[in-house]
Amino acid sequence: MYFGFEKTVLLNYSLQHEVESAAVMALSHRYASQFQRIRILDSTTFQLPDAFASTYQGSGGSGHTAGVKIQLEYDLLSGQFLHVHSGPGKQNDRTYGSTCLQTVQTGDLCIRDLGYFDLEDFHQMDEKGACYIYRLKLNTRIYQKNPNPGYFKDGRMKKQSEYVQLDMEDLMLQLQPGQKHEIHKAYIGLYQNSPTEVVLHRLTGEQTRKRWVNQALKEKKKGIVMKERSKRLSAMNVYISNIIFFGKGYGLSFDCRFWS
């Protein structure tokens, strides 16, 4: 049964690739000179009968104890699968994402969702000369250098005034639905020394409502309640990248520039 699930997932990806082949070919021509590969990594999880729990332990929810997770990374430019892996449903996306770094090369663009977020991975991609775009968790603290830090009388800068934390909710409210905003040289976490680019994208009203409906279903399934602030922040997506974007067409015109 488990192999049937895996084959189904791979078939779905293959069919989707065929449907989008024309768009991918156009994308290939546009970015062939920009990137060696555009690597997209994602995962999907299926519930299994409880009898499989000893081998494929689930991630919890819906009263099921067994589940299988399939990880798939493919190159958008060539359509080739780079990594395919199956394991227990409780498998951590971030851990698996780090194992894929072994094959990252100069000129690659790695696109991953928030479950794969790992600061050390970003450092390694920078060192390899690769680009990345990740979706960021909304509760992540983002800082910028303080343009007016405090100083002691002897001229030493007050360490606690070196960075200022950005108010993500305030920034979101300054955007119109559908609008994007880029923050240059931001720092993820107070003790992060390497700056990165942050792009905010406020969702439209329809997109926000759909997200809240999906979130309500997840809350009911897992028996959790989202905090009010987190719910408000869910009306936007936050991305981080070592790419400098230009113009209104985010992701269409950019310079792959590294802050290392």
Automatic annotation (TrEMBL):
Annotated InterPro entries: RNaseH-like_sf (IPR012337), Transpos_IS4 (IPR047952), Transposase_11 (IPR002559)
Membrane-spanning ranges: none
Domain of life: Bacteria
GO aspect biological process, one term: DNA transposition
One Pfam family, short name: DDE_Tnp_1
Domain Transposase IS4-like span(s) in chain numbering: 34-170
Single Gene Ontology MF annotation: DNA binding
Function: Involved in the transposition of the insertion sequence.
Protein name from the UniProt record: Transposase IS4-like domain-containing protein
Lineage, top ranks: Bacteria, Bacillati, Bacillota, Bacilli, Bacillales
